[in-house]
Amino acid sequence: MKVIILAAGRGSRLGARTKDRPKCMCELAGRTLLDRCLDTLEKAGISRSDIGIVTGYRSGMFQVEGVTCFHNPDWERTNMFWSLTMAREWLERETCMVCYSDIVFAPEAIVRLRESGAPLAVTSYSGYWDLWKLRMDDPLEDLESFRTDGNGGLLEIGLKPGGPADIQGQFMGLLRFTPESWGWVTETIRHPLPKPVEKLDMTTLLQGMLQLGYPIRAISTDALWLECDSEQDIKVYEREFIKELS
């Protein structure tokens, strides 16, 4: 099974940290986010030869032995989904897990995602509320909806929540596609969506797929997961999670 790491973005909210390097090469507690990601994948049993990285900003800095590199030349004006399509030759041919490059996560999430029998699956983090309280004053200002049917079927994702009941987890930036479900993606983007294809974020795509009736399996986990989106995030994590990050 292949793993595609999405690493095309700069991450402007990290300020000076990304002036001369991609977001995933910023350090968290002395190690780059990309190094942490690759180490986690290795612990989950993923070989470097099965990993592809979609590059964009400062692509020349990606010198990772054994991995395949794809490139999004339009990284500056496109979004996450467009970067993923750079690796469509893999997605059309075999089952692939997709991983954001600005997250820290436990091997358990990858193992459970790999073992899922669903054509399309995502992981969700159940400890989101405590994490968001550390990151910001009002978690509801930033949190997105994530609702399931109680049996692991995803009902809604990525919308502005009406209240806490609409948030049963948070999307972690980890997905699993089969060639069948990648075909669903191809069909979905033929329909009207809230954003043009080149500007599509992943949750908007997934919500569009749900509205068309495509099933998505949600896999909940409480294992360590951190989203490194801002300078404040880095400071908080190095203060609150230094033991887990060592």
Folded structure, characterized:
This protein is α/β, with parallel strands linked by helices and 246 residues long. The protein has a single domain, classed as Spore Coat Polysaccharide Biosynthesis Protein SpsA, Chain A (Alpha-Beta Complex). It has nine helices and 13 strands. Strand 9 and strand 10 form a beta hairpin. The model has no long low-confidence stretch (mean pLDDT 97).
Task: Outline the fold blueprint.
Layout: E1 2-7, E2 27-28, E3 31-32, H1 33-43, E4 51-55, E5 68-71, H2 80-85, H3 88-91, E6 96-100, E7 103-105, H4 107-115, E8 120-125, H5 128-135, E9 146-148, E10 154-157, E11 170-177, H6 179-188, H7 202-211, E12 217-221, E13 225-227, H8 231-240, H9 242-245
Parallel strand pairs: 1-4, 1-6, 4-5, 8-12
Antiparallel strand pairs: 2-3, 6-11, 7-13, 8-11, 9-10
